[in-house]
Amino acid sequence: MQIKIQNLSKTYQATRGLLPVDLEVEEGELIALIGHNGAGKSTLLKLLAGWLIPDSGQVFVDDINLKNRLAVVRKIGFVPETPNLFDFFTVEYNLKLFARLFQVPFQRIDEILKAFNLLPFRNNKVQVLSKGLKQRVSIGRTLLADPAVLLFDEPTSGIDFEMTKEIYKLLKEFHSSGKTIIFTSHRPEEIKTLATRIMVLHQGDLVFDGSPQSYFQSDIHEKLYL
Amino acid sequence: MMMIRNIITLTVNDLAIAFKNKSIFLILFIPFFVYISLMLVDEAGVEIKRVNIGLIQSQHYPPVILESIQSADKLFSILTVSSKEEGNQWLKEKKIDGLLLRPEKDKISLVLVVLKKESVLSLQIVESFSALQKAVEGNGINWISDIKPLQEGGIQRQTLPTWILMLVMLVSFIIMPAQIAEEKEKKLLLALLQTPMREIEWLMAKLFLGMILIFIAVLFLHLMGRFDFGNVLSYIAFIGVGSFCFSAYGILLGFFCRSQAGARTLGVIFYLPHLLPSALSEFSQKLSTVAPFLPSYPFFESVKSVLLDDRRISTLFPAWLYLLFIGLLTFFISYLLMKKRWRM
Known about the structure:
Chain A is α/β, with parallel strands linked by helices and about 230 residues long. Chain A is built from eight helices and ten strands. In chain A, β9 and β10 form a beta hairpin.
């Protein structure tokens, strides 16, 4: 699964958003997208997920233009920072709704519930779950269609240390199963041993793109975070 | 002292929230709306509209009355109909405002047939006749001895079209925009767009939701009030096209708002102007000239004609087509906004 990004940009009224950027992502990469608030990390992920319409540029997933949403929608899964679930329904209802829309058998729901330790909560309303559990349901929902590319926007934001470790463990597992992953983070130290590639966005501009080793050897980390 | 300061701080904060979610606009909008409505209600000095009076060709009207009506051409215009049945039909189609019958040849008194007894127009006809008689004869036996309305069924049935309009507007402008804005606000719509669901499917689902809610509400109203349906096919055709038109309209309003609070405010801003002029147009000539500009008016008038005058869709087809057109137009705009991920 290869992603090609050509001249992709998005500007907002108040902030710069994302300046035109060109990128290529190879199959099986685990990319950490880092930068300060407003750097354009979430904008880039939302553009890849089809949440935002770009001002310019194109994205190709396995040579299929992202504009052809229905052709690529099963290939890309996006987990937003705040879980967007139907709060007033149960965990199982949420998964069933999306299983129907993805046209996957309900058997997959049991697999997901089991894999994410959600079996005890299957009949609980989402609104009573902790943010960590909601995040797990959100990830589980995204995996229903087994997409080859997974996008995570601040997956560890607002959750405790134990749950953060669990999320990173999940990312590693997804990566070892051959999935391409792009996730955003505020905390470069945490992703030192996790990512295979680091990209740094600053004020909408891609200012670094390389291996974790070269990132920590360069002065960019010092300039941005120290 | 600390307590007072906290209360002030929180009150200012609440006002800021009300301003932010646009609820505060309602306190400006509603008085403004009432002011405009009052301006549109007829005042004492309003110019009298000339009324169309139907006379049956074969009937012999008292010459004194006929001559008086003909000479009062600023008050009346006379139209001749071939029979009482045709006169009634013309009344229903609003080609005439009143029909004069002479029940007994030897008496001078006449029977006035009107669409609705309790209307400004009926009152105007009776007052005009009274003034005319006074000018011609001085005081005497009233020329009009009886008023027969075509719309029977009591005040409950007379108000039924207004209640139906109210229900349709409530679902379309209050419930639908808030539900759509909620799905946008909580990013649920974007989550659904991460699936192979097409935009048109989501819009159709919302449209059906609005239509189902309206049909259930109308059915419930009929069951509770034990009202019959009049001409069932024509009635279903108008409730169907009305629910389609206004549900699509409500969906569009939902797309204009980012939050539920904003949608509720916008909903009320659209709800009142669509409801009141249509429901009150019979009581004011000015309102009856303004109301046709709103899509709620052809819906209200058509439902009223089907329910109270037993008219059929074949005679009300332009109104049906107009509602269909407005529904399709608003639906199409919503589709374009959804494609552009407008305010999501």
